[in-house]
């Protein structure tokens, strides 16, 4: 086997291909899930509504990583940096310039898209573990950059910034938490639909061609440099939206809230949800939000060890994440229909 063939073979094994029809849920299942998301806040307390809001926010961040890794095959451990840029953009615009919270969302998306696109340019020379290390360095450096003296006037330095949570508009009879949940849900649905259409479009096919075999994609006329940086930009933009919503929901931003731990959690959520399966992004988000709490309820002193054991069991039993469970469920339902 020649050196070029070995590279092709290695690239082909890097990320498993995902058929288009496996990227989303069926229409019926999607409507049921949407109805549950719309109705659930009416019957639960504000704290549960807050947790559901954070699930959607982290789901968006994991979905962005899924587009980058599951879509174009690029590994990133630096999503927390883009999340932080989005959060601080919203916090600064709201608190210093009195910009409406809804208007800060597209601004954060644009800023983070530019940041991700520019970072993707020099990262073109890197791939695999080396790209992961470069993004790891970005995530490690970001909290320290936010603490720099010349930025302290805007970022609040170590103390961070307090963000005002918005009231429901037009005098709607609902709490701040409930309104923010529905606002987040609308944004999440819009970005989810955009992501599905993106991966089914010509650009999405180019992403997946690069993911499956970069050399073959280049020989077929795909502009590898353009689409790899575009994937970074889109992923960063969506992560920035998640960061903006997270800043509004938590009502506070601080550098130590966006450390490498957050980046690793998002990567973990993608793996648990299933790489390349967009609905799994929200399953993975639920895992990184609720399982640590479950581990702490089992043993406060050994919560980290318990979480590690639970994570090991999930990876061992379902190595392809929630996508594997969904496929098995679909196969079982098909057998029951035949019988």
Topology at a glance:
Layout: H1 3-14, H2 27-39, H3 46-72, H4 79-97, H5 101-120, H6 129-145, H7 152-155, E1 161-162, H8 176-200, H9 202-212, H10 214-219, H11 224-250, E2 252-253, H12 260-273, H13 280-298, H14 303-317, H15 322-338
Antiparallel strand pairs: 1-2
Which features does this protein show?
globular, two-stranded antiparallel ribbon, 1% strand, 339 residues, mainly alpha
Q: Could you characterize what this model shows?
A:
The longest helix is centred in the first third of the chain and has 27 residues. The chain contains 15 helices and 2 strands. It is globular. Strands 1-2 form a two-stranded antiparallel ribbon. It starts with a helix and ends with a helix. The chain is mostly helical and 339 residues long. α3 packs parallel to α8 and α13 packs antiparallel against α14. It has one domain.
